[in-house]
Every structure is written in structure tokens, then in C-alpha cells.
Amino acid sequence: MAPTPQWLRRRTVKPEPAGDVLWEICRSCGERLYKKDLAEKLWVCPRCGYHFRLHALDRIALLADGDFQELAALLATGDPLQWSDRMPYAEKIAGDRKKSGLLEAIVVGLCRIDGVRVGLGVMDFFFRGGTMGSVVGEKVTLLIEEAARQRLPVVLVTASGGARMEEGVIALMQLAKTTAAVERFSELGLPLITVLTDPTTGGVSASFGFQGDIIIAEAGAAIGFAGRRVIDQTIRQKLPEGFQSAEFLLEHGQVDMVVRRSELKGVLGKVLRFLAAQAVPA
Amino acid sequence: MAPTPQWLRRRTVKPEPAGDVLWEICRSCGERLYKKDLAEKLWVCPRCGYHFRLHALDRIALLADGDFQELAALLATGDPLQWSDRMPYAEKIAGDRKKSGLLEAIVVGLCRIDGVRVGLGVMDFFFRGGTMGSVVGEKVTLLIEEAARQRLPVVLVTASGGARMEEGVIALMQLAKTTAAVERFSELGLPLITVLTDPTTGGVSASFGFQGDIIIAEAGAAIGFAGRRVIDQTIRQKLPEGFQSAEFLLEHGQVDMVVRRSELKGVLGKVLRFLAAQAVPA
Amino acid sequence: MNVIIELEKPLLELEAKIADLKKLNETQRVDFSEEIAALEDKARQLKQEIFGNLTPWQRVHLARHPRRPLALDYISALSGFTELHGDRLYRDDPAIVAGYAYLGDLPIFVIGEQKGRDTKDNLYRNFGMPHPEGYRKAQRIMRLAEKFHRPLVTFIDTPGAYPGIGAEERGQSEAIASALKVAAGLRTPIVVNVIGEGGSGGALAIGIGDHIIMLQHAIYSVASPEAAASILWRDAGRAEEAAQRLRLTSDELFEFGIIDEIVPEPLGGAHRDPERIIADTLGATRRALERLVRLAPEELVDRRYEKFRRIGSHVELAHDSAAR
Amino acid sequence: MNVIIELEKPLLELEAKIADLKKLNETQRVDFSEEIAALEDKARQLKQEIFGNLTPWQRVHLARHPRRPLALDYISALSGFTELHGDRLYRDDPAIVAGYAYLGDLPIFVIGEQKGRDTKDNLYRNFGMPHPEGYRKAQRIMRLAEKFHRPLVTFIDTPGAYPGIGAEERGQSEAIASALKVAAGLRTPIVVNVIGEGGSGGALAIGIGDHIIMLQHAIYSVASPEAAASILWRDAGRAEEAAQRLRLTSDELFEFGIIDEIVPEPLGGAHRDPERIIADTLGATRRALERLVRLAPEELVDRRYEKFRRIGSHVELAHDSAAR
Ligand SMILES: [Zn+2]
Ligand SMILES: [Zn+2]
Q1: I need a surface site. Which of A211, C157, D207, D259 has the fewest CB within 10 A?
Q2: What is the structure's pLDDT at B6?
Q3: DSSP code of A241?
Q4: CA D150, CA D109: separation in Å to the nearest integer?
Q5: Interchain proximity B13–D323, CB inside 8 Å
Q6: What sign for the dihedral angle of Cα D308, D313, D318, D322?
Q7: Residue B11: what pLDDT?
């Protein structure tokens, strides 16, 4: 990857690396990989092509040209249910903040992708499994509203286990809130492009994830509404090969294309330039 | 059926009855039925419930309250391809005119159904298999245009073997023409209700037949795009039970309801009154 | 097994006894009035004891009570209901019923999630769990309501979307996401009634509206307690605990500002007086609609936007190092 | 077996001979110029003999020639083509390809019916016969074109809709009917190119537009000759006769006012000079678009209405007894 951009260096909180500092095991082929090499290869296994889950900041560094102007950076959950199970929800959040260097499961802001100005939101599966609670819903909505004001396209990169249980029905309502924002944005004739990465399920796939005008899936990503475990437990029958993989969804007509990580920025740039090109007089 | 209404008596051409004058054999159960009884029973077999194909004029008599103001009554085909095979197309037409008492495979006009004023078009399978050529396309279009002018709902009762081969691509273009009329009509917020009767296939099912806001299928009707024979010849495998029946289509989500002939007028009246009722201020 | 059925058993027995006595009282010459009065008093006490302080888990079971009125009970109470079938794409989904009807003299379109009354019926209705084709039928009906300027009334009662192979293959994410989008921008009034169980995206798919009514003992949740427990702790057996934590009761949802109105139920639940509950629910729906039909479509959609825009709970930290 | 392949065999042999001689001429010291000139003369004569007066049935086979340029050949000749997949409902149909590209510097959406190049490819493409999901993908792309104010360009090349069980189960009537309706009202310019075979509703589904271009040796018909013969005489074997009667050639369609422009092909067919044919077709498309993009959407849709409104052939009789 390129040297750390300015916007990233400005962030005061840094992630605390989990597990082995130097080595990483490929989930798909079992290969032991040197982390520094892996980062250079955009976290794609050089042996089998497996796409590792990417941290939001790494994804932004991958996609944004130069600067990234973060929005709503300091929003944090209000813990509406005052949830607590094995530990208080607030503590879980604090733990994930430390590990991830993020305040929540999404980073949103304005930047250029391959020269085109966009609103960009990137979810982070390492923060509470990328679940959507009040803050994710609010930040997606704020991003879309700001992009609407500036008449910019929006790119949302999803990675999510669904709605955040610890915020109960208020988390569920973030589907409605973000949808309302997408619908209003869409009425202005502005494009939403979604990039579904591993994994995208539940409330995020069932709201803005599948509301894109163009829907791109990252190679090998697991995408669906219900998680595999829930389906297994409910129907207890063998799942078809490749079930819920990006490629499976392409065949089933659900996504426009499946793109490898190395090509993602190029493809996004192409789509964005096409949609931004001088249009027929309306 | 009720005594012959005035509008029907005004017609100078009368159909020449085909086959046995007194008796009819049920296609479904084989029962020999007295034609006069059968007509009283709306041409539904009293033994097995089979719905005989209905002549357009009988259908209009069944649906219209009192008067029916026919439109474009004297349109006849221009025979654009000057078609001839075992005999000239013009002769085939002349033969069907004699047998059916109709000039073409559809009758269109204005009337009331259960008190609601509508534009009504009824196809006749006994005229060239209810195929759509220039005249059917033109009459459907004229009906929709007139209904649009008067802001009336339109009810189209289909019965068709598809596009009329003898008019070639000009017949095909009637799908485009009638569709354009439906689309413009629809943009005015006016309702189109289609009633698919036995059989409705090909160009008619693939245009206005399935463009209804509400789609009603008559019980037992065969409905589809490709005819059974063509499918049989192409794929040579066993067809599912009830394939292309009205009930099969209901299960497959294609039609809103399946209605018995005796209930059709009542159901249409109900739908029409609902759609004509005082609306929310727009 | 529904825990409410066990709980209400002594009460039902006592009530049967009272009914017997009342019959005797009418037909025999002996006067049982005093005994009846005493038993009725006892029944009132018992009812209070049983239902006066239900746990969230018990309330979940009350919302799932097999005799609780279902969507079609409400819809059939409207005049002139005509069912419209199918998504025009793949299949007619019996877990979602839809059509048109009149609420008083107001022509409306309706959509409801329909559970079964018995095992056979439940297999047919897939226990009220829609497939993608159900959400797509709902979208079709929403668009009809918009085109013909009729209000839309929905009835939510589902454990959630169906976690099955076909449902995933045919894109239930897309189907729900699109239903939400259509509802968000629909230029006609929408009144939502949560009548039983409101579970996850399967509920919300017909849950975006201008006025959200909830029955007192209905539940509405980000996921069914079983699913939530499975997601949170990989143990569906801890559903009772999840029910407790999820804050899924009508009073809590009203406090959160998620719902706009609660229809009170008799002590013991809606199934103890279905007719009244149905009338009250339709009455509340009607009052809401009478207000909403006066708004211009643009205003309606704008207010709906603001309504959902507000929902959330977040704070702004002073600095991102506040995380430390 | 394609009848054109037999017909063109002597010509191809002669041309191979000429090519050989030319090579010899360059490498050897003997001068073959005269022989070459004579053979080239003969080839020209032969070509004229073979192709100068094709029967309609032979023209059907020319339109189906295995080396004739296919939709993706035209689409790939555009700059920056990106394929977009799927109907978002059920499946991605390989018989219809769609996406966006640039025609010169004009951003456009494209939809094409795609046959296979060989047996394996044809099985994958279902011989260019779409399923309902193909027409539904087409509708999705049409709506994208409208939303983003980009013109739509289509390429027709199909024997027709697929007569199969799944296609009927999933409502191919509805799928075609809806595609027609979307195209009829689409508020962006549409240019249609009939490049090979235009058969029945399967062709028309992407055939409603503002300017209809047809290649000289393409065919466009209410049904494939085989299907028409089967429908008319219950005998697909009489396809040749049907081809003769159906009036499916470009000059006849131009006379009928069904198409607006013919792109001439070299004697022998488009496959004898694919590059030129593709360039000419895209050039014609571009000229049409340059004119169409200047129209306001309302005017565009109105003109499209009038364009199809006119098509038909009927007379008004003096009296209905005229039938006698
Ligand atoms: Zn690997
Ligand atoms: Zn019978």
C-alpha cells in the first residue's frame, strides 16, 4: 500500500494489532503469510486469492485519492437500551474502540475516487462485527444528506453482521432511516453505488446494501440476509455449493458484478465517471 | 342469459351457428348438453364446471348493463402482406365473418358494468383464433384513447392465439402500438383491468393482457406466452400438472385472482367501484 | 409450548365454572347469584395475579398466543375485502395477504402478514414468515395504492424473514430493501399496525408509515428473542434473557418514540375480546387516516422522512481520543 | 445446416485460390497478375450469381450465418463497455447482455441479445432466446438509462422467446409486456438495431425505440419462419414457405414504415466485412442519437407514441353487412 496519507496520520487513535504482530494465516488455504507482504498485496492471499477482511481505514486508503475529509467523526452511541449481558455494552464498545482505532463501525466522509468527488462510507467488520446501530445509521444518513447538498455520488462499502442487537428496535429503525435518505437522494437523480464486502448480511444487506443503482460485490464475499448458521439451524439441509458467495449472487441476478480488490478502485472510477459524464439534456 | 339487448339486435350480421344446432359436447367431461340450457348457464358445463369459450357478443351481453355503444365497428383489415396460402387471407377473413357475425376478432365500445361507466373490449377466439392484427391493435388503441378522453377505466377481455401470422411484422407491431396506448393511459392514473379467458397466449398475453393494474383470469383458462404444442416440440419433457392454467398462474404469482364466469360481472363491478370511489386528495 | 396457555389454565377453568353456574342459575330454581359473585371476584383477582405483571418473555408468548387475532381477522372485519394475489414475478406468497377494502367508506389497500391458525394452516402460511415474493407482492400493492391515491394500511405479525435456501437465492435482502425504499417514498398515507409479533426486517418491510399503531401486548424487535439470543450468544435457548433485554414491549417502544399509539388490550390479552380489539385497532387506524389524507403527498413524504430521521441515540464526543 | 454455407463454398474456395496466388506473386519471380485479375473477375461474377438474388429463405440463413457479427461484437466495439448483470430478482440471463459504454464520447446504456459462437457457447446463451429474467434485466437497465439521462441503444438478435417450462412459470408474458411498457414511456432516447434475427415478442421486448436501424440482410418477423409455419400449418417443415410469405426483409420492412434506416451490407453478408458493418451500424446509431438527444423527454415520448401509433393497415367498411 501507499505511504500513510495525511488524513490518516491526523487521527490520534491508532488500532492495537490483535493476534500475531508479524504473521497471518490464510483462512482459505492455510498459508502462513508475512503481514507486511500481505498489506502490500492489499490483503489478498498471494497463494489462493482469498480476500482478507479489510479495516475501514485501509479500505479508504485503498480507494481515496489523497485527502479524505471525515464527517461526523466523533459520533458515539448513546446506548439507548442501557444494555448489559456478560458485560455492559459500553464496555464492549470501549474494547472495540481500542482494538480498531475507530469510534464506531463506519467511517464516512468526502474524497475523490479516481478523480471523481464522492461521498464515501466504509464499514468495519472488526468493530462489533460491523453491526448497524444508531451511529452507523446516523453517519450513513448524514453522509447521504451532505452528498445530496453537494450533488455528489455516494459510494457505500458494506461489511456487516446486520443490525446491532444491543440497540434493539432502535437499531432496526436505522434500516428505515437510511432507506429514507437513500430514497430522497435517489429522487434527486444522484447515483448510489454499493460495494458489498465480506460479510454483508442482515439489516445492512436489507437496506442500503441492496439499494445501490449499481451493486458491486467483492470477490469471494459472503452476502445474504440470514446468516449461514441460522439457516443451518432452521432448515437442516445441505446448502448449495458457493451458497451466499458473491459469485453465487451474480448468477442469481442479485449483483451487477464481482470485482477483485486490486481492480476495485479502477472499476469504481469507471462507473463514477460514466455516471458523472455530460448527460443528455434532461 | 337475459333477453337480447337493443344494441345486439341493431347488428345486421348474425352468426351462422357451426356444428350441431341443438347439442354441444363438453370438452372436459364429454357430457352431451342441450345448447339452450348451456346458454342459460353462461356456457359453463353444469356437470363439471368447464367454461366453454364465449363469443364476444355473448360476453358483452353478460357484462354490460343495458346499452353498449360500439366504437370503430366497421374497421376491417387492409391485408398489408396480400397474404395467401391454401386460400387468400381475404377469403379466410370472409369465412370467419360469416361464421361469427363479426368483422374482426374484437368488439370494443363504451358501456356500464354494474353501474360503472367503462371502455370495454372483448376478443373473440372464434374469429381467426382471436389473433391480433392491424384491426385488433387499432381497435384496442382507439378504445383506450377514447376512454382516456372521457377519463373512464378500461376493461379488456382477452381470448387469443397470439399475433396474426398473416399480417407479419405489422401484427407484431400491434404489441408496441397497444402498449404505447396503455402506457399513456396509465400515466393519467386511469385503471386498466384485464380479464384473461381461454386461451390467452402469444402477442396478446405479452402486451395488454399482462399490463393490467388488476389481472383477472377466468377459471380453467389456458394462459401463457408459448403455446403448449410449441413447448412440447421444443423441450420434449412432461409438463407440470395444470401447466398454464389460470390456477397455475395464480400460484405462480402472475394473476390477481381466478374468477368463475358466474361471478365475473360482480367482481368487475366491485373492483371498478373501488377504483372509481372518491380518492384521497391527490 | 406457549407459556401463556399454562398460565391462563386456572383462570379459564374458573371462568368455565362461572359460566356453568350462570346457566344453572337461569334454568334451576336455586339461586347461585352469591356464589357467582364470589367466583367472579376470585376470577378478577386471579386474572390480576396472572396478567398484572407479566415478564417480557411471557409477553412474547402472549403476542404469539394461538388464539390471538391474526391479520386476516382484522382485514376481514373491513368491508368488501378483495384479495389480490401474486408478485407478477415468481409466486404468490401466502405469508403475506394483500388486497383492497373499505374502512368505513374510505377505500384503502391493505397488506398483512398472516400466520396460520393450526399446524396445516401454519405450514401453508410458513408461520407468517414471508419469502422474497411476499415482499415483492407488497411492493406491487404499495404502488397500486400510490397510483390510485388510496391510503395503505398494514398489519405486522411475523417472527421475521424466512431463513431458507430459496429465500436467499431469490434475494430476500433485495426484496426487503426495495420494499423499504418504495414505502419511504410512497406518495399516499400509510398506517402501520403491529398486531402480534414484529420481528426484524420481515416486519419492517411493511412497517414504514406515517402513523404506527401497536397493540398493548404486541412485541416489536430487531430480531425474535430466539434469533437475537442465537446471534448474541450462539444459543437460541437464552431467548428469555434476550426478551428481557431487547425492550420489545409497546410501552417501551412508545417511550423510545418508535410507535405513535398504543391500543389497550383487555387484561389477559387480545384473544379474550377479539371483536373489541379489532374494532379499536381499526378505529385508531381510521382516525389516523382521516388526519393523514388531508396532507399533500409531498408533505406526507417529508413528514415521514423526518419521523424516521429522528430515530437514534448518539452523542458527540469531544475528541476521538475520548475513546481511550 | 445453414444453406448459405453450402452456397458460399465455391466462392470461398476461389477466394482462397486467389489469396494463394497473391502470396506466390509476392514471393516468386513469376508474375501471376493476369491470372489473379481473371480469377478476381470470376469471383466477382460468382458472388453476384450467388448473392445477387437470394430467396427469402436464403436470406433467413444469411441472417443466421454462424460467422455473422453478434451483439457483443458491436458492443465490444464501443469504448469502455462495462457489463451489468442480473434482474435483481431471480437470475442473470446470459441470452441478454447489458451494461454501459461510450459511443464516441456519448455515454450510453446498451442491451443486446446474444447468441453463441459455437455449440457450448450457444448452450450458455440459450441460442439467444431470453428467459423472463433477461427481459427483467433489460427493464432494469432501461430505468437506469432514464434515471441518469443516458440514451439507450439495443441490439436485436434472437429467434424469439424461449418456449420452456421455467420461462412460462416465471411469467414470460408479463416480463415481455412490462419491458414493452417501460420502453414505451422511457424518458430518454432509444435507438434500436436489428442486426441478425428479429423474432417475435422476444425481439420486440427490446425493439421499441425512437429510431429503428436494420442491417440489410437482417430479418425481422412476427415469429421465426419455423414457428410461423408451425402455428399456421402445424408443420415447422414448411418454414421456407413461411419465410417467403412473411415479408421479413429489410427493404420490405422499410416500405411498411416499420424501420427507419437500412445499413447496407457487402454482397455476401455482414460476416464478409464485420469491421465495416459494425462501424457503419454504430455510425448510424450515433447520427440518430445526436438528433434525438436534442429533444425534450416529453417530445421524445410523444413522437415515439406517434411512431408506433401509425403502424397498421385497415379500412373502414360502409356497413357491417359488407361482410356478406
Ligand atoms: Zn490463501
Ligand atoms: Zn363438463
Answers
A1: D259
A2: 75
A3: T
A4: 7
A5: yes
A6: negative
A7: 73
Domains detected in chain B: 54-278 (3.90.226.10)
Would you say residue A281 has pLDDT above 50? no
Residue-wise pLDDT for C51-72, tens only, equals 988 999 999 999 999 999 999 9
Distance from the alpha carbon of residue D157 to the mean position of ligand 2, in angstroms: 45
Residue type at position C35:
E
- List C-alpha distances in Å: A16 to A95, A101, C270, D36, D193: 10, 7, 53, 80, 59
Distance, CA of D107 to CA of D97 (rounded, Å): 17
Per-residue pLDDT of chain B (282 residues; tens, 9 = 90+): 555 677 776 676 667 766 788 999 999 999 999 999 999 999 999 999 999 999 999 999 999 998 999 999 999 999 999 999 999 999 999 999 998 899 999 999 999 999 999 999 999 999 999 999 999 999 999 999 999 999 999 999 999 999 999 999 999 999 999 999 999 999 999 999 999 999 999 999 999 999 999 999 999 999 999 988 888 887 888 899 899 999 999 999 999 999 999 999 999 999 999 998 765 444
CB D112 within 8 A of CB D72: yes
Cβ B179–D258 below 8 Å, yes or no? no
Amino acid at D183: A
Q: How far is D136 from chain A (nearest CA, A)?
A: 10
Spatial CA neighbour of C135 closest among C186, C198, C86, C82: C86
Rounded Cα distance, D22 and C324, in Å: 83
D201 touches chain B (CB under 8 A): yes
pLDDT, tens digit (0-9, with 9 covering 90-100), for A183-209: 999 999 999 999 999 999 999 999 999
Does B202 reach chain D within 8 Å, measured CB to CB? Answer: yes
Q: In this predicted model, what pLDDT tens digit does every residue of A50-68 receive, in sequence order?
A: 999 999 999 999 999 989 9
DSSP state of B84: B
Residues 6+ apart with CB under 8 A from C233: A85
3-class DSSP assignment, residue B172: helix
User: pTM higher than 0.90, yes or no?
Assistant: yes
Q: Do A202 and C201 touch (CB under 8 A)?
A: yes
**Contact at CB, B279 and C91, closer than 8 angstroms:** no
pLDDT tens column, A158-182: 999 999 999 999 999 999 999 999 9
Distances (CA, A) of C209 to A37, A168, C140, C308: 51, 19, 16, 9
Give φ, ψ of A267 to 5 degrees.
Answer: -65, -45
Residue C316 half-sphere exposure, CB side, CA atoms within 13 Å? 6
Q: At what angle do helices D56-63 and D239-246 cross, to 10 degrees?
A: 100
ipTM of the complex: 0.96
CB atoms within 10 A of CB D53: 8
Q: Which three cell numbers stand for residue A66?
A: 489523497
Question: What residues of A are in contact with residue C208 (Cβ under 8 Å)?
Answer: 176, 179-180
Residue B252, chain C, CB below 8 Å: the answer is: yes
CB A178 within 8 A of CB A141: yes
Report how far residue D203's alpha carbon sits from residue D222's, in angstroms, rounded to the nearest whole number.
Answer: 9
CA pair distance A158, A246, nearest whole angstrom = 13
Ion ligand 1 — residues with CB < 5 Å: A 26, 28-29, 31, 45, 47-48, 50
Amino acid at A100: S
By CB neighbour count within 10 A (0-12 exposed, 13-18 middle, 19+ buried), where does A233 fall?
middle
Grid coordinates in use for B189? 392514473
On whether the CB atoms of residues C212 and C199 are closer than 8 A, the answer is no
The pLDDT of residue A17: 65
- Phi and psi torsions of C271, nearest 5°: -70, -10
CA D243 to chain centre: 16
Chain B: closest CA distance from residue D31 (Å): 54
Nearest CA of chain C to the CA of B5: how many Å?
30
> Ligand 1: distance of its center to the CA of A51 in Å?
8
